[in-house]
Batch of 2 targets.
Target 1
Amino acid sequence: MQNRILKWSLLAANILVLVFFILFRNSISVAGNIAMLFCLGVLAADLLYAAFVKNWLGFWLIPAQASLMLAAYFARQAASSSHSSLHSVSTLNFIAMLAMPLLAIVLAVLDLKGIGSREIKYPKPLRLLGWLLPPVMLVGLFTFALLGYDHAYNFGYSVHKYTTTRADFLFLFIIFAIACLFLRQFIASKQGSWGEYLKRSVAVLTVFAALAGFGFASFLRGYTSLRSDVAAAEADYRAMFGQSTQETPGRVVPLSIPQLFFGIRHNANYRVVRDVAFRTITEGDFAGLSLAYDAYYPVNDADELPSVVIWLHGGGGGKGDRPHMCKWLATRGFAVYDLQLGRTWEMMLETINAFFAHAVQHESAHANFDSVFIIGASMGGSLATEYIYNFDHRFLDYGVNIRGIIPLYGIAPGAEIDENSIPVLIYAGSHVSYINAQRQLRDQYRQAGNGNAMFLGVSFAGHGPDDQFSSRGGQLKLYFLERFLGNLR
């Protein structure tokens, strides 16, 4: 009777999972996070149920669910640009996640009807699996532990930066599936009492527990540190603006667990004009080089012209390498200009001036250049701070009012700060060599009696913690960026 109640409860829970996936797949709320944690818990329960149920369909459910998670992961990468996941939901990703509870529902129904039930015994072609599974599981766990260590403790760039940081929960789920397969074999191979089998397997189980525990702890460190990261940045934010999170519209929670899996969707309230030429190099080694920009405009009925965001790309990319960020800003009511910068540092700085000279004549009907923000990533972040702090301020001659800058993991040394320096939101991963220089810029503001600087650090992250748009670092950036821009626009 109790066993039947358990099966009916798991069946009902999986039906709820289907409902929650549909209702909360793009939720940015506490309720959405709770719903997604419930879904993950039910999927884990499905795997444990499949490991222990005397039904061959249960055996195949374990690798099927793990494979679907991998399909969901690679579906997200298929929707990626060279550096980053576009902030749209992959249909294959959503279907793959929906298929997991559907498989579990089929297993539970068939098991309730007694279809497919038999003693656990490998067919002859698969009996080798009984010998291979424990060593394969241990190798997988060892790899998982190394990835976890690299993910939590690497400094600067990491060979796994573009994999482990993109879907941490994926790796937790896959290793849990491997562990369930091991449990399945553990049950099938058991002879005599559990105590006797445990004595013979104590070494394997000890290694299993140690590696699994270390791997889980390493991967989860970034999430357990989220509270302290938010608290530290929130203190700077309140010192800067003197108000609580509720007084400025923005994301309700700093991390949406559904968006970790399904990505961040955008609406269609923007339009794009590409390859607008605005500067031609007339002399030097690059004479004849033509530079252009892409413009992303919001589509709304607002009476006022939208504020402006100038996007400066990183050193490894160019115009168009972060379309997700430009689209997201446009849907938030900003006119975004993604600039092609040029080849040399001096050329890039002059290009920003050239854009402002062009824009006040040709873009003033589309955007409000009395409310301008400069956002740059990596080299673009360094370029933004160099332009504002160390370069001639010719933008003032064009009537441009820069209200804030956001250097993303990039900073130019030698900034001269005074009480009138432009507000800044500094963003970086904690495991980079230049982190002290970024904190120093915030401290320079304070020493100058200027409270218009805040620092947002992402613990256990290297260079580019927002490379995947819906990742932990990406969402944390959006949480404070929305409010920073909202207060100053």
Target 2
Amino acid sequence: MVMANEHAQLRLNLPDAYRRWRAGRLGRITDALEETLIMELVGSPAGLRILDVGCGDGALATALAGRGADVTGVDADPHMLAAARARAEAMGLAVAFVEGDIHALPFPDASIDAVVAVTILCFVPDAHHAVREMARVLKPGGRMVIGELGRWNLWAAKRRIKGWLGSATWRAAKFRTAQELERLVTSAGLDVTATRGAIFYPPCGSAAALLAPYDPWLGRRTTMDAAFLAIAGRKPVQSADQS
């Protein structure tokens, strides 16, 4: 059993771990590819009210705000929220960050233009409920973009081994296929509009530098062996004769 103080220490260390990851070549290249893909699926964010669920240290939330979106980041971890607020303040961006549970988002029905959730569903106990909750707050015609860690690739294999060796983070993670993520989206009543892959190289900085230029081309054509999967869904607009 993982003790409570181990969980507390893990939370305290996460912002530093993110910083170390982004300081390396592999982290910089990988994060840039993933962010570019998520931004492409979100579309033009200017003027939209966007909810970043599981916002972590605010990297995506501030990127969206920098492009003119009205962004609110939600996370269950106050340490991550503190790091996110510090990031937004340093960048001179007005981003709201609130503590909340993905299974019970503190927002009214149909109040959000777009919802993004990146590498969070693999860590929540009830992903079906979480996606339905994100769909609840989404306006009709609004877009949901989910980015998740793919199930069958070298990155996932490495993480599974870490979990077997005692990592609390990766022992609890659940990796999914593109088809499983699509089913999560459709079961929440949304129409899938795009399914994309990214990060087709192994977890190695030199491989990332060599293969990153080809990654977007591959991601538009297949999700096989992709370490990162992105699904976009649209909430149907109810017609007058259905109301």
